[in-house]
Each structure stands twice: as structure tokens, then as C-alpha cells.
Automatic annotation (TrEMBL):
Superkingdom of the organism of origin: Bacteria
InterPro entries assigned: NAD-cap_RNA_hydrolase_NudC, NudC-like_C, Nudix_hydrolase, NUDIX_hydrolase-like_dom_sf, NUDIX_hydrolase_CS, NUDIX_hydrolase_dom, Znr_NADH_PPase
Cofactor: Mg(2+); Zn(2+)
The keyword Zinc appears for this protein: no
A Pfam family it matches: NUDIX
Group of enzyme by EC: hydrolase
Gene name in the database record: nudC
Protein name: NAD(+) diphosphatase
UniProt entry keywords in alphabetical sequence: Hydrolase, Magnesium, Metal-binding, NAD
Record has NAD as a keyword: yes
Amino acid sequence: MLRPGFTGSPLDRADALRNDPDAFGAALSDWRARLLRLDGIDPVLDEQGRLSWGSLAEAPEDAPLLLLGLIDGRPHFAALDYDMPLGATRSPAIFRALGEMPPEEASTYAGARSLIDWHLRHRFCARCGSGDTAIHRAGWGRKCGNCGTEHFPRVDPVVIMLAEHDGRVLVGRQPQYPPGRYSALAGFVEPGESVEEAVARELFEEAGLKVRDVRYVVSQPWPFPSQLMMACVAAADDPTLTIDTTELEDAIWVDRAGVEASMAGEPGAPFLPPPPFAIAHTLFRWWLERE
């Protein structure tokens, strides 16, 4: 069974508590309640590489508390610090931390990070422009005090895919990647578009490939800031590439032996693969392991 990164959180999201002010108040006063420790928006890890939790008393003064959910019946929260820089960047520290964290821990953190980031980006009402929006539903929404519109956290759908031709797959690299790294191609799903259509369009736009037989493989959250990555594979009849250099620095076809060597980290392998917590890593592994 595939186990992508950022999945498997032990959190019970406790939706019933979000709509019950009394139950939410009881969770806030529960002596067992725990607060996620953060360094800015990055996680603080313990010696085992797991998330570090403290008491609610550690929250910054006047910082709203967002209910992440329950673990073994115990409420778990994250504090919303409005002084945090809007759209906090991905620091090198976060990727080092993700390399240490078990997937289920990364999953819990991903939910917290995306939720905090959403609040930082949505303090103003998108309908009337008022800044008088208040947190509600235990942190899983905001409500405008001017027009009454309710706003809820959203995720952006992204397709990430491998094109196949004659026993090979297409991999590409962007300029910001570390030296030697290649990954699966990816792009946002546009309004009025299916997943299959988005896969075909992105492969044509970025690499000039026409594909067919698009098949869904697996999905994964990606909290930078809040995407749902949907991994797919598609067949190409013609391997000729026309690379869009505004999107890709390079793209190459790699056979099974080359992908195996890359995933194993062998010297002289064709490319450096994505880290294990990235869904592209899961997609490469699936492609190698399927019959």
C-alpha cells in the first residue's frame, strides 16, 4: 500500500466541537490540552524527531487558539500569531525537519501550518473588503462582522504526473532545484478542468507532449501553503520534447534502470530524486514497483 508523505495523522478532526461553543470552551479548559510548539511557522521537534507539544499556557498573549483535533481524546491546538510574516517562506530548516519526521507527524504539522497560513492570508473579507473578520468554528473559519459572509480554509488542486513512452518516464527540473535534482512535472488545475484534462494540458504546455490514458495513482497534501497533490501517469505516443523554458530548465526521458539507480542513490545515476516526503518520490516508487 502506498504511504505518501504528509498522510496518516492520528488527529480526530472533531468536527462536532467546531460547531459547539460550549464543547470548544470545555476543550480550551481541559487540563490535558496540548499546544503545538513552533519556531515561527516551522515545527519544533523532540529528540525522536517528533512534534513537540506544551501546555496552553505557553501560547503568546492574546494569540487565538486553533483546534487541530483530538489525539486519544486529548485536545490539541496551535496558536495563531498575527505578527508572523504573511506567507512565511520555506526555510532550509523546515526541509531538514521534514526529513526527520515520521509521515504521520508531518501530516499533523501540515494541517497546522496550512491552517495558520490561511488565517494570515484571509483577515479581510473577500466579498465586501472589510477587515472586520473574526475566527469562528474553533479556528476552521472566519466570519465577516460587516456583511456576515463566512469564509473557510481551501486547498488548491495540483496535478503531478509521469509521462511514459517505451519503458521510460519523463522527468524535469526547475532552476530553483538543488543541483542534479529532477522530478515529475506538475501544475495547478484550472477552473472548469478535470484532473485528466489538467494532466494533458500541463504536459503539452511544459514539454510539448500529447498524452492519452491518464490514470490517477495517489494524492498527498502539500502545506506550502496549501495544495492537494494528485499524482497521475499518462502515455505518450511521440517522445519528442518542446520544453517551455519559462517553466522548466531541462527535461529528460529516463528508463527503469536509470530511475532505480537514482532512487537508490547510486553514483552516476541520471538524477537526484525528490525527498521521500514529496509525492513525486512516491510516484517514482509506485512506477518501479508495479507489475
